[in-house]
């Protein structure tokens, strides 16, 4: 695996997050990269009773002999609407950088110029800017400043994070209101700054979520609520079930 | 496909249920067999807001671009607890027949003798007799007499259905109370009498359910309730979601 | 279910394909509609060792206790590349009709005008015209004329099929070569002419494929080849497996 | 999450493996526990072209727009046959311990007595002893001594690992040949010694495998082989595909 001797070179010497990075990127991350990467996975792991967590619990209720089925059902909701922001933000930022001229050390004002053009373009084409806004955190997503701090501490505050920060500064000029940079979006920026392939960013969000779903299944095992959820929904509909 | 010319021998000449039987059994069913088989699929197709239907709707809510993911999530709940009765009943009946001596035309009293021994054995080993009882239909599952009638009309009232009927007559002697023969169980008996492989009976229940889930997804598309389900559950838990 | 008494109104009286149409469309199909619909399902059910069939067989090999998992794995390949043509064609045709002026009984020449404009537009935007071409059938997909005949016989040769036929006539003028109308595309046109929701067309392809996958799993059970497939692939790669 | 402030208490301070342990077990692991746990995840992450990896790659080939579907398809093969050993071994060991009298510090000879009885019982009931034997490593699975060493170094060489080692010593007396203790089995023993719930051991194997599958998908993206696999299989079968 990875050109290494699994037993002697990897086991006990490589963390699990580090291995996941290595398997996808094809190169071993530095300790700094590992810290940022694991912070992203932690940030994305669990978000309470999301639709995907409920789907996993109900599938576990129906087929408790197949943990793999419940986990798969939970991951299948990892699509455009609830888990796509990370990759969408990474792609938006990478696309903007690809068509702009920039250097890592240019001043904020120059980043703002690029950001302003990108937000205006999106607006003109009626596209959303991914990573802006959050249904609960109306002012600030607490994950955002923490991930910026970690990336700075580790010397990994790169162009995607810089551009995303600039979007946070300039978007009110275009959109007419101030939205927070959400955590899923900043995770996408941070992963892109780690040089990970944009097409696989959703994959990391799914890996993180896999841990979260296992947590839900373990909790469902200890303290089941799936049957209550089922009955609550069933009672409130016009359907007459023919069979439980 | 099936040694036939798909376009000229099958399209427009073979029904979809007929084809499904043919693909699995490796032989074309007679019209009588097709009628019983399709009655079973219809009986198993949809049962309101089952956990699997809810899982499918929530997955569709999260990833509307992937109908295949929502359908798969719904089918993954087709395990031991909510969709296993059909196969379990077929297996129980087939196993009992394999270890008993019987003829198709023996009188009910002889079937009762076999059934009584089988129910007593199950009781002694603390195993459930699959196909007995229903959470809603406490007296009679309306599907049961209808499927018996159809099988009789078509000359397909075979040993599995006979044995299952005998179980319906004798189990109160052993269990001390009278339970209805449920529809999922009688479907298993009918499929086994059609000579279909026992190991694939759950597969037919899943095929039937696939149509039911598509019905749910179409309804979710016209008249979405997934978001309400999500919010209702989310509100009633102690979790604080970090992200929608 | 469907405002009907499942046991008395549906079982034994409604075919399985008919029921699937009814569940999705919210209305009972006529016998003519049912015949076209089932011809489509038959046309789409099985296509040999597609990637999805192989994925289902390998999953069954790995987890034979979970038929639902193998079926789900097979359906998850039902995405844009191998199973998307049906819906893509339906959407292309419906979109063209929505932005054109037409009557059911106008002459072929008028359909050709609409078709020519649509193919030119697609070409100009470098989009593929879905439903054109087939990897095996270079001259004609045998399913295509058969489905046209069935639709005509049943009085269901509507605007989507007419427009698709016109595309078959005019596209060489734009593309510079003659491609056959493939069966998956004509299925999309026929389903759209049945008034079924475009967003659910992939769902019908998946339902058809579910029957095909069950056929593969039954065959894998009788005559397993999954292990051979696995070993054949494994032998031809540079990987050293650490564990089977 | 976990009664902690996600942003301030967890991000950047907790590794991803540590978080996964915490979410499932409901308690934070010690650094020693984390090291053993991550060594297990690393040991189980990737095993070359397993059936599950092939299923994931073929699903990605068919539906490249849905990474979640490809990942789910790969996980669905995580059933009894190829990924079940970890949980099976943990359950076998835990069951034996539950019905035996033992202390952590008793001499090897006493562990051998318990192990001998357990292997004899399994043999008498014609059950396999999970964790014995490996298709490639006929003498020794290199992961086994490494994980024993790590567990010893961390003071986590507990009763499940002791009993498993004893099985390694005594089974030739009963089975008449010497089989290696495989890595998947020793992982199950190590997880059980960490106090993790036996019912969730397959879940950890799935989490590890999720990282391995993402590695396969990233490689498939860089250097695709799915189409070659498909064509190789397709060419070697009697099927005539109707459609690619």
CATH architectural name of the domain at 85-198 in chain A: Orthogonal Bundle
Number of β-strand runs of chain A: 0
Number of helices of chain A: 12
Give the CATH superfamily of the domain at 85-198 in chain A. Answer: Cytochrome P450-Terp, domain 2
Oligomeric grouping of the chains: homotetramer
CATH secondary-structure class of the domain at 85-198 in chain A = Mainly Alpha
Computed structural class of chain A: mainly alpha
* Percent helix range of chain A: 55-70%
Strand portion of chain A, in percent?
A: under 5%
Q: Output the radius of gyration of chain A.
A: 21 Å
Q: How far do the termini of chain A sit from each other?
A: 47 Å
Largest interface: A-D, 67 and 67 residues
Shape by Cα distribution of chain A = globular
Largest sheet of chain A: none
* Helix and strand sequence of chain A: HHHHHHHHHHHH
List the uncertain runs of chain A.
238-244
> What fold name goes in the CATH topology slot of the domain at 85-198 in chain A?
Cytochrome p450-Terp, domain 2
The whole-number mean of residue pLDDT values of chain A reads 91
